[in-house]
Amino acid sequence: MLAAATVAAAAIASTSPAAACLLASTCERPSLEFELSELEVTPRVLPERTPVPVTVSGGARITIADGTHPSALREAVVDVDRDVAFDVEGLPACGYRQLASRESDAARDVCRRAILGWGTAVVLVTYPESRPIPLETDVTLFNGGARGRATRLFLHGFLPIPRPRAIVAPVTLEPAPGNRGGLHATIAIPRTSEGHGSLIDFALTVRRTFPTDDGAKGTFLSARCPDARFEVTMPKLVFKNEIGTPGVAPQIVLKRSVFLPCMPERSR
């Protein structure tokens, strides 16, 4: 894993209009922090021209300096440069309804052949007049099938309170718009714990290959390394203050840009 210090990151934060706060003094709390960590593409040494299968792993942590319950991440848009590609041809798909009512183990059992990745997530649940409760869940990434130029994936987790419920976040993968190439992903994160839950920690590994029906191996993610780095941008991370925390804007939008190093395999 690459330590967070090895990743060059730039961040810009903006909030909704100031009218969201009744008094200016109530809007002066520290900004929400979204930290990316341990981002890695494996193998690190890659051909300059011909893409090969890769595994991608990484994590994120969400905090706020004064200990206020963080606003809930509800949408994330991620763009990856043109040296990374995806393909789900030959991979079985799993539908939303197959996942929406199942715990983690049951979801993996019924859709085992559609699994593309796995990890963990922590959701902080805060109710009035009670201490915050961190809930950890396994996270599994499933293939949901391709339609036209778009591929649907599902991130699945399970929370036991306030009532047992599967959390299924749809992910839409598309080629980046225009002629610049690359990947464009949109993740829609559902409301959790009746609005009282906020994601605070997340880690995921996405595997490079999968078995196909004919016994061969398909490649989900492939990459090349012509310029010693991959660029990942997050033009929109939308957080919503769903429990009405005083002094916090109803919506916060963050941006991130990250460069991941790789090593070109020089031709002999």
Q: How much helix is in the residues?
A: under 10%
Main sheet characteristics:
12 strands, antiparallel
| Strand adjacency order, main sheet | 1-18-17-6-12-11-10-9-8-13-5-2
- Give the overall shape, derived from the CA principal axes: globular
Number of domains: 1
Quote the average pLDDT: 85
Residue fraction in strands: over 45%
Count of beta strands: 19
Low-confidence stretches: 1-30
Indicate the radius of gyration in whole angstroms.
19 Å
Termini separation comes to: 29 Å
> Strand pairing plus helix content: what structural class?
mainly beta
Order of helices and strands: EEEEEEEHHEEEEEEEEEEEE
With helices defined by DSSP (H or I, 4 residues minimum), what is the helix count? 2
Concise account of the structure shown:
The protein is mostly beta strands and 268 residues long.
